[in-house]
Design brief:
Layout (H helix, E strand, L loop, with lengths): L4 H7 L4 H35 L6 E4 L4 E8 L4 E7 L2 E6 L3 E5 L2 H11 L5 H6 L5
Antiparallel strand pairs: 1-2, 1-5, 2-3, 3-4
Length: about 130
């Protein structure tokens, strides 16, 4: 034999910690890039939903845009007016976003800017 049995057994023994190190590193990466940001977004959503008041413009997770008219059922549901005299009850958790008054100004500014296509749009160039 070229390799003795004792040498072959000790060659792979790096310890228990070094064999677990890749799993620990993968968990750390998952925590900082996936778990932590998701928890932060969930906390922001809970705060936004708890601060809903009458007159707020909201977007539901189904894509409906409406105005909160009143709170119903122990703060779990809200009544949203989606069209004139059309009111629906929606669970607070199903409200995806609250629109601010600045959204209209932002949309107006982007609509006036000319659209650039191709590489000119990426690098800010284009025909003048």
């Amino acid at each position: 034999m070229l390799i003795s049995p004792a040498f072959a057994q000790s060659a792979g023994g790096g310890g228990d910690f070094t064999s677990l190190l890749p799993f620990v590193l993968i968990f750390v990466v998952f925590y900082f890039f996936l778990i932590r940001p998701q928890q932060k977004r969930a906390k922001e959503h809970r705060e936004m939903v708890s601060q809903l008041r009458r007159g707020d413009k909201v977007i539901t997770s189904g894509g409906l845009v409406g105005t909160v008219t009143k709170s119903v059922d122990d703060q779990e549901t809200v009544e949203v007016e989606i069209a004139k005299d059309v009111k629906v009850n929606i669970m607070r958790t199903m409200i995806a976003d609250k629109r601010s008054k600045d959204d209209k100004a932002k949309n107006a500014n982007t609509a006036e800017a000319p659209k650039k296509s191709g590489l000119a749009g990426l690098f800010g160039g284009g025909k003048k």
